[in-house]
Request: fold
Amino acid sequence: MNIRIENLTKRFGPQKAVDNISFEVRTGEIVGFLGPNGAGKSTTMKMITGYLGIGEGDIYIGDKSVRHHGDELKRHIGYLPENNPLYTDMPVIDYLVFCAELQGIDKAKIPARVREMIDITGLKAEKHKKIGELSKGYRQRVGLAQAMIHDPEILILDEPTTGLDPNQIVEIRKLIRELGQHKTVILSTHILPEVEATCDRILIINRGKIVANGTAESLRNQSSGNAVLRVLIEGATPDEVRTAILKLPSVKQVLPVDSQPGRMEITAEPGTSLGRVLFHLCVEKGWVLTEAVPVETRLEDIFRNLTLN
Reply:
Protein backbone atom coordinates (compact mmCIF):
# COMPACT_ATOMS: atom_id res chain seq x y z
CA MET A 1 0.00 0.00 0.00
CA ASN A 2 1.63 3.23 -1.18
CA ILE A 3 1.91 6.46 0.79
CA ARG A 4 1.66 9.71 -1.16
CA ILE A 5 2.19 13.07 0.51
CA GLU A 6 1.13 16.18 -1.38
CA ASN A 7 2.03 19.74 -0.36
CA LEU A 8 1.89 18.92 3.34
CA THR A 9 2.23 21.79 5.81
CA LYS A 10 1.81 21.89 9.58
CA ARG A 11 1.97 25.03 11.71
CA PHE A 12 2.30 25.42 15.45
CA GLY A 13 1.42 29.06 15.98
CA PRO A 14 3.65 31.15 13.71
CA GLN A 15 6.17 28.31 13.23
CA LYS A 16 6.02 25.94 10.25
CA ALA A 17 7.06 22.53 11.57
CA VAL A 18 6.45 21.02 8.11
CA ASP A 19 6.68 23.31 5.09
CA ASN A 20 4.94 22.24 1.86
CA ILE A 21 6.60 18.82 1.43
CA SER A 22 5.70 16.15 -1.13
CA PHE A 23 7.03 12.61 -1.57
CA GLU A 24 5.89 9.03 -2.16
CA VAL A 25 6.78 5.69 -0.59
CA ARG A 26 5.98 2.53 -2.53
CA THR A 27 4.97 -0.91 -1.31
CA GLY A 28 8.02 -3.06 -0.63
CA GLU A 29 10.22 -0.01 -0.01
CA ILE A 30 12.00 1.00 3.20
CA VAL A 31 12.59 4.74 3.35
CA GLY A 32 14.92 6.30 5.90
CA PHE A 33 13.57 9.64 7.12
CA LEU A 34 16.46 11.75 8.43
CA GLY A 35 16.84 15.19 9.87
CA PRO A 36 18.19 17.09 12.88
CA ASN A 37 16.06 17.49 16.00
CA GLY A 38 13.14 19.79 15.30
CA ALA A 39 13.34 19.34 11.52
CA GLY A 40 9.79 18.00 11.19
CA LYS A 41 10.33 14.21 11.06
CA SER A 42 8.14 13.18 13.95
CA THR A 43 5.46 15.74 13.05
CA THR A 44 5.24 14.30 9.53
CA MET A 45 5.06 10.73 10.84
CA LYS A 46 2.34 11.66 13.32
CA MET A 47 0.26 13.17 10.52
CA ILE A 48 0.67 10.03 8.39
CA THR A 49 -0.58 7.88 11.26
CA GLY A 50 -3.45 10.23 12.13
CA TYR A 51 -1.97 11.02 15.55
CA LEU A 52 -1.83 14.69 14.52
CA GLY A 53 -4.32 16.47 12.28
CA ILE A 54 -3.20 17.57 8.83
CA GLY A 55 -2.64 21.30 8.45
CA GLU A 56 -2.52 22.02 4.72
CA GLY A 57 -2.15 19.60 1.82
CA ASP A 58 -3.05 15.93 2.10
CA ILE A 59 -1.74 12.40 2.65
CA TYR A 60 -2.99 9.44 0.63
CA ILE A 61 -2.81 5.84 1.80
CA GLY A 62 -3.45 3.81 -1.32
CA ASP A 63 -5.98 6.01 -3.10
CA LYS A 64 -7.74 7.29 0.04
CA SER A 65 -7.16 10.59 1.80
CA VAL A 66 -6.10 10.54 5.44
CA ARG A 67 -7.94 13.83 5.85
CA HIS A 68 -11.26 12.22 4.86
CA HIS A 69 -10.76 8.53 5.74
CA GLY A 70 -8.34 8.72 8.67
CA ASP A 71 -10.12 6.34 11.05
CA GLU A 72 -10.59 3.72 8.34
CA LEU A 73 -6.95 3.91 7.26
CA LYS A 74 -5.47 3.55 10.76
CA ARG A 75 -6.06 -0.20 10.71
CA HIS A 76 -3.53 -0.48 7.88
CA ILE A 77 -0.78 1.27 9.85
CA GLY A 78 1.55 0.07 12.58
CA TYR A 79 3.20 2.88 14.54
CA LEU A 80 6.15 2.90 16.94
CA PRO A 81 6.29 6.45 18.37
CA GLU A 82 9.55 8.10 19.33
CA ASN A 83 8.95 7.83 23.09
CA ASN A 84 7.35 4.35 22.90
CA PRO A 85 4.53 4.90 25.45
CA LEU A 86 3.70 1.63 27.21
CA TYR A 87 1.53 0.50 30.13
CA THR A 88 4.38 -0.39 32.46
CA ASP A 89 2.19 -2.18 35.05
CA MET A 90 0.99 -4.74 32.49
CA PRO A 91 2.80 -8.01 31.78
CA VAL A 92 4.14 -8.27 28.23
CA ILE A 93 1.63 -10.93 27.14
CA ASP A 94 -1.35 -9.09 28.60
CA TYR A 95 -0.28 -5.86 26.91
CA LEU A 96 0.07 -7.51 23.49
CA VAL A 97 -3.33 -9.20 23.90
CA PHE A 98 -4.79 -5.81 24.80
CA CYS A 99 -3.20 -4.22 21.69
CA ALA A 100 -4.48 -7.04 19.49
CA GLU A 101 -8.01 -6.52 20.81
CA LEU A 102 -7.76 -2.77 20.17
CA GLN A 103 -6.76 -3.52 16.58
CA GLY A 104 -9.84 -5.71 16.09
CA ILE A 105 -8.07 -9.03 15.59
CA ASP A 106 -10.38 -12.06 15.77
CA LYS A 107 -10.25 -13.33 19.38
CA ALA A 108 -9.56 -16.89 18.25
CA LYS A 109 -6.45 -15.71 16.39
CA ILE A 110 -5.01 -13.47 19.12
CA PRO A 111 -3.04 -16.12 21.11
CA ALA A 112 -1.24 -17.36 17.99
CA ARG A 113 -0.51 -13.81 16.85
CA VAL A 114 0.87 -12.83 20.27
CA ARG A 115 3.12 -15.93 20.31
CA GLU A 116 4.38 -15.04 16.82
CA MET A 117 5.21 -11.46 17.85
CA ILE A 118 7.00 -12.63 21.00
CA ASP A 119 9.06 -15.03 18.90
CA ILE A 120 9.86 -12.50 16.15
CA THR A 121 10.93 -9.75 18.56
CA GLY A 122 12.90 -12.03 20.91
CA LEU A 123 10.70 -11.57 23.99
CA LYS A 124 10.36 -15.24 25.01
CA ALA A 125 12.41 -14.93 28.19
CA GLU A 126 10.63 -11.72 29.22
CA LYS A 127 7.04 -12.46 28.22
CA HIS A 128 5.70 -12.97 31.78
CA LYS A 129 7.42 -9.90 33.25
CA LYS A 130 5.76 -6.57 33.75
CA ILE A 131 6.85 -4.04 31.15
CA GLY A 132 8.15 -1.76 33.91
CA GLU A 133 10.66 -4.47 34.89
CA LEU A 134 12.21 -4.63 31.42
CA SER A 135 15.36 -2.89 30.19
CA LYS A 136 14.98 -0.08 27.68
CA GLY A 137 16.00 -2.41 24.86
CA TYR A 138 13.32 -4.96 25.71
CA ARG A 139 10.71 -2.22 26.08
CA GLN A 140 11.61 -1.16 22.56
CA ARG A 141 10.96 -4.72 21.41
CA VAL A 142 7.54 -4.61 23.05
CA GLY A 143 6.85 -1.40 21.15
CA LEU A 144 7.82 -3.10 17.87
CA ALA A 145 5.61 -6.07 18.70
CA GLN A 146 2.55 -3.85 19.31
CA ALA A 147 3.21 -1.99 16.04
CA MET A 148 3.19 -5.28 14.09
CA ILE A 149 0.55 -7.21 16.06
CA HIS A 150 -2.23 -6.63 13.49
CA ASP A 151 0.04 -7.36 10.49
CA PRO A 152 -0.33 -3.85 9.01
CA GLU A 153 0.56 -3.03 5.42
CA ILE A 154 2.40 0.12 6.52
CA LEU A 155 4.95 0.50 9.32
CA ILE A 156 5.95 3.90 10.69
CA LEU A 157 8.94 3.44 13.00
CA ASP A 158 10.31 6.45 14.87
CA GLU A 159 13.78 5.60 16.26
CA PRO A 160 13.08 1.83 16.42
CA THR A 161 16.54 0.77 17.67
CA THR A 162 16.85 3.29 20.51
CA GLY A 163 18.26 1.57 23.59
CA LEU A 164 19.15 -1.69 21.86
CA ASP A 165 22.58 -3.27 22.23
CA PRO A 166 24.63 -3.99 19.05
CA ASN A 167 23.39 -7.59 18.77
CA GLN A 168 19.78 -6.52 19.17
CA ILE A 169 20.25 -3.77 16.58
CA VAL A 170 21.47 -6.31 14.03
CA GLU A 171 18.45 -8.53 14.74
CA ILE A 172 15.95 -5.67 14.46
CA ARG A 173 17.58 -4.45 11.24
CA LYS A 174 17.20 -7.93 9.78
CA LEU A 175 13.56 -8.03 10.89
CA ILE A 176 12.84 -4.64 9.31
CA ARG A 177 14.51 -5.73 6.05
CA GLU A 178 12.33 -8.85 5.96
CA LEU A 179 9.18 -6.88 6.71
CA GLY A 180 10.09 -4.32 4.07
CA GLN A 181 9.93 -6.92 1.30
CA HIS A 182 6.15 -6.79 1.33
CA LYS A 183 5.25 -3.76 3.45
CA THR A 184 5.66 -0.01 3.15
CA VAL A 185 8.12 1.16 5.80
CA ILE A 186 9.17 4.64 6.92
CA LEU A 187 12.03 4.52 9.38
CA SER A 188 13.33 7.52 11.32
CA THR A 189 16.72 7.34 13.01
CA HIS A 190 19.79 9.39 13.93
CA ILE A 191 22.09 6.39 13.37
CA LEU A 192 23.26 6.99 9.80
CA PRO A 193 25.04 3.62 9.28
CA GLU A 194 21.71 2.02 10.19
CA VAL A 195 20.06 3.86 7.30
CA GLU A 196 22.59 2.51 4.80
CA ALA A 197 22.25 -1.02 6.22
CA THR A 198 18.45 -1.02 6.25
CA CYS A 199 16.89 1.47 3.84
CA ASP A 200 16.30 1.45 0.09
CA ARG A 201 15.98 5.22 -0.13
CA ILE A 202 16.75 8.25 2.02
CA LEU A 203 14.74 11.40 2.63
CA ILE A 204 16.43 14.26 4.49
CA ILE A 205 14.29 17.01 5.99
CA ASN A 206 15.60 20.28 7.38
CA ARG A 207 13.56 23.14 8.82
CA GLY A 208 10.40 21.52 7.57
CA LYS A 209 11.54 21.11 3.96
CA ILE A 210 12.75 18.05 2.04
CA VAL A 211 16.37 18.80 1.08
CA ALA A 212 17.37 15.39 -0.34
CA ASN A 213 15.60 12.34 -1.77
CA GLY A 214 17.44 9.33 -3.21
CA THR A 215 19.52 6.25 -2.51
CA ALA A 216 22.73 6.62 -0.50
CA GLU A 217 24.69 6.11 -3.72
CA SER A 218 22.73 8.71 -5.68
CA LEU A 219 23.10 11.25 -2.85
CA ARG A 220 26.87 10.72 -2.94
CA ASN A 221 26.87 11.20 -6.71
CA GLN A 222 24.84 14.40 -6.40
CA SER A 223 27.05 15.72 -3.63
CA SER A 224 29.41 18.50 -4.63
CA GLY A 225 32.03 17.10 -2.26
CA ASN A 226 35.73 17.13 -3.08
CA ALA A 227 37.66 14.27 -4.66
CA VAL A 228 39.71 12.60 -1.91
CA LEU A 229 42.40 9.97 -2.40
CA ARG A 230 44.40 8.22 0.32
CA VAL A 231 47.84 7.21 -0.95
CA LEU A 232 51.16 5.69 0.11
CA ILE A 233 54.16 6.87 -1.91
CA GLU A 234 57.72 5.62 -1.47
CA GLY A 235 60.99 6.85 -2.96
CA ALA A 236 61.13 10.37 -1.57
CA THR A 237 60.68 12.21 1.71
CA PRO A 238 57.11 13.08 2.73
CA ASP A 239 57.92 16.79 2.41
CA GLU A 240 59.17 16.34 -1.17
CA VAL A 241 56.08 14.35 -2.11
CA ARG A 242 53.73 16.84 -0.47
CA THR A 243 55.36 19.84 -2.17
CA ALA A 244 55.14 18.21 -5.61
CA ILE A 245 51.52 17.13 -5.19
CA LEU A 246 50.42 20.58 -4.04
CA LYS A 247 51.69 21.96 -7.38
CA LEU A 248 49.28 19.71 -9.31
CA PRO A 249 46.22 21.43 -10.84
CA SER A 250 43.05 21.36 -8.67
CA VAL A 251 44.80 19.93 -5.57
CA LYS A 252 43.55 21.77 -2.47
CA GLN A 253 45.39 20.11 0.40
CA VAL A 254 47.68 17.20 1.34
CA LEU A 255 47.55 15.88 4.88
CA PRO A 256 49.60 13.11 6.57
CA VAL A 257 47.67 9.97 7.58
CA ASP A 258 48.64 7.66 10.45
CA SER A 259 52.28 7.52 11.52
CA GLN A 260 53.66 5.77 8.44
CA PRO A 261 55.88 8.13 6.40
CA GLY A 262 54.58 8.65 2.88
CA ARG A 263 50.94 7.87 3.61
CA MET A 264 48.76 10.92 3.04
CA GLU A 265 45.29 12.07 2.10
CA ILE A 266 44.96 14.30 -0.96
CA THR A 267 41.94 16.54 -1.49
CA ALA A 268 41.19 17.99 -4.92
CA GLU A 269 38.34 19.90 -6.52
CA PRO A 270 35.20 17.93 -7.55
CA GLY A 271 35.54 16.05 -10.84
CA THR A 272 39.35 15.85 -10.72
CA SER A 273 40.87 12.62 -12.11
CA LEU A 274 43.20 12.55 -9.14
CA GLY A 275 44.40 8.97 -9.51
CA ARG A 276 45.49 9.44 -13.14
CA VAL A 277 47.32 12.73 -12.46
CA LEU A 278 49.06 11.27 -9.42
CA PHE A 279 50.15 8.16 -11.34
CA HIS A 280 51.80 10.28 -14.03
CA LEU A 281 53.56 12.35 -11.35
CA CYS A 282 55.01 9.21 -9.71
CA VAL A 283 56.23 7.89 -13.10
CA GLU A 284 57.86 11.24 -13.86
CA LYS A 285 59.58 11.40 -10.46
CA GLY A 286 60.50 7.72 -10.26
CA TRP A 287 58.46 7.23 -7.09
CA VAL A 288 56.63 4.04 -6.11
CA LEU A 289 52.86 4.42 -5.67
CA THR A 290 52.03 1.45 -3.45
CA GLU A 291 48.54 2.46 -2.37
CA ALA A 292 45.76 4.66 -3.82
CA VAL A 293 42.32 4.34 -2.23
CA PRO A 294 39.44 6.72 -3.06
CA VAL A 295 37.77 8.04 0.09
CA GLU A 296 34.02 7.80 -0.42
CA THR A 297 31.87 10.74 0.61
CA ARG A 298 30.28 9.73 3.90
CA LEU A 299 26.56 9.95 4.48
CA GLU A 300 27.39 11.91 7.65
CA ASP A 301 29.14 14.57 5.55
CA ILE A 302 26.22 14.83 3.13
CA PHE A 303 23.80 15.12 6.06
CA ARG A 304 25.86 17.88 7.70
CA ASN A 305 26.21 19.82 4.45
CA LEU A 306 22.45 19.76 3.91
CA THR A 307 21.34 20.55 7.46
CA LEU A 308 23.90 22.96 8.92
CA ASN A 309 22.94 25.97 6.82
Remarks:
- The chain has two domains: 3-221, 223-304.
- Residues 166-179 form the longest helix (14 residues).
- DSSP finds eleven helices and 14 strands in the chain.
